[in-house]
Write a structure and sequence with these properties.
This protein is 27% helix and 27% strand. With 219 residues, the protein is of the alpha+beta class. The strands form 2 sheets. Strands 1, 2, 3, 4, 5, 6, 7, 9 and 10 form a 9-stranded antiparallel beta sheet that branches. Strands 8-11 form a two-stranded antiparallel sheet. The protein has a single domain, classed as 2-Layer Sandwich (Heat Shock Protein 90). It contains 9 helices and 11 strands. The model has no long low-confidence stretch (mean pLDDT 84).
Length: 219
């Protein structure tokens, strides 16, 4: 018996929904380690900051509860934002490859295979904080969907950008942190790592902390 299809059979999904429900479609673009894939996609904006000469340090932390944080020290973040930049951020985090348009260097653009949307879509929640002009802007997502307008937090003397997220293990399964693969990846996108420091916090929620310092553009 043949099956007839009509408009009623067509289901329109967003890019976020497609990634969450059809992850296998995107896995052939990446490595065999899903956490490595998420970290590489999440690092694409920081990589561009390194190639621009502004960022010299990136800190990656992985907590025992599965919360990932990436923080760079670019004194003037590549994301020059204000509260009116809400639509721009939603585009970057919810559309395929949108973060490539922000890149100052073509080599940094190669760090994006799907884009930072890949991280956002596969996270239970994601929080972006951008530190600039002694203030902090924050934007939050849940399962890829924007939750709050871009807003200012308290004033601070920090600089750089921080992306914190909790991968949705219901979709991607257990996580395994592969430091060696991450170290080997940086030179492929033009970043030379001068020093790597590894530590583990001794708290009720132990966290692995990897500090990549003395970062330069690998000619």
């Amino acid at each position: 018996m043949s099956t007839k299809y009509n408009e009623a059979n067509i289901v329109v999904t967003t890019s976020i929904q497609h990634i969450r429900h059809r992850l296998s479609t995107y896995r052939n673009l990446h490595t065999n380690n899903i956490l490595t894939d998420l970290l590489q996609e999440a690092l694409c904006l920081s990589v561009d900051s390194v190639l621009s000469g502004g960022c010299t340090e990136i800190i990656v932390s992985v907590s025992s509860e599965g919360v990932i944080s990436i923080r760079d020290n670019c004194p003037c973040s590549e994301l020059e934002l204000s509260e009116s930049s809400d639509e721009l951020l939603e585009t970057i985090f919810t559309r395929m490859g949108a973060c490539r348009a922000l890149k100052h260097h073509s080599r940094a653009a190669t760090a994006c295979r799907v884009g930072i949307i890949f991280v956002n879509a596969l996270s239970e929640w994601l929080r972006l904080r951008v530190f600039q002009n002694e203030r902090c802007l924050i934007k939050e997502f849940r399962e890829g969907v924007p939750q709050t307008p871009l807003r200012y937090e308290d004033e601070c003397g920090l600089a750089g950008m921080e992306i914190t997220f909790r991968p949705d293990t219901r979709i991607i399964g257990p996580l395994e942190f592969d430091l060696l693969s991450l170290c080997e990846w940086f030179p492929t996108v033009g970043v030379q790592v001068g020093r790597v420091e590894y530590s583990r916090s001794d708290t009720l929620n132990p966290t692995m902390i990897v500090r990549f310092t003395e970062l330069t553009h690998n000619q």
